[in-house]
Amino acid sequence: MQEVYRVFLFILITFFEPSVNALLAFIENAPALVIVVAFFVCWIVCWLPVATVSAILLNWQPPKPLQPEQKMPLLVSLYLLAPLILWGVVWLTNKSFSDYGFVANLSTLGYLALGFALGVGSLAIVFGGQFGLGLCSFEKTNFKLLLPILLPIFLIALLVGGIEELIFRGFLFTELAQDYPVWVAAVISSLIFALLHLVWEQRETLPQLPGLWLMGMVLVLARFAASDNLGLAWGLHAGWVWAIATIDTAELITYTGKVSDWFTGKNNKPLAGLAGIICVLGTGVIIWLNS
Prior knowledge:
- A two-stranded antiparallel ribbon has the order 1-2.
- It has helices at 2-28, 32-57, 68-92, 106-132, 146-179, 182-195, 202-205, 209-225, 231-250, 261-264, 274-289; strands at 136-138, 253-255.
- The chain is mainly α.
């Protein structure tokens, strides 16, 4: 039996090794767009069975809109798959996660903390300004809702921010920058980042597209400011997600309607209004001046 196994293994190696080597050589020298498209296709294909089972268990039937409690399991499963797919890309292209800006060291933790503080602080300034101008009011009675949700939302924000930065400012930007000028890679990766948000919600996301694109550009700048380390961009992204999600979940803010929602944000989404754009631009200026 052992001899049969050895013969079978020898035949496999003899017939398939040249093809495998040829495939690896092609992938290693393939254009950036080929690698990028292959990654996103593999990501979606691998996620579809998980999404299908999850949709059945959650009793979600498209095209019905997803409820928040239905969206979260789908989102988490999608994001948890991403590092596994990216690990395959890293292995096939003979690269490492550090090539994409993800380095496991104390410097990354420092940048992460700094970015998180900057993200939360920038939003605090914007909302504080709107409060001072009478454009919104705080629902003080809802403060009691904060304590139970702070940690769960923080963990989700870290996951979402980390995965999205690894994919868009790490993998996608790095690959595109190999074949295109840096500014073109930044523009394209930020555009893809913005457009992919349409997958979840179209009506609320459309007005946010310019803001999401600008956010992507600022996060690219954050990677450069941190000497190619994703920690600052990760922290900034997580800080924004945590602050906005906390405010929305606890319903802490009510807009007074004194100005158009094009200033405060369509559908109560800051990135869909001038205030959110000012927040992102101001953060970018701070990063630029201190880089």
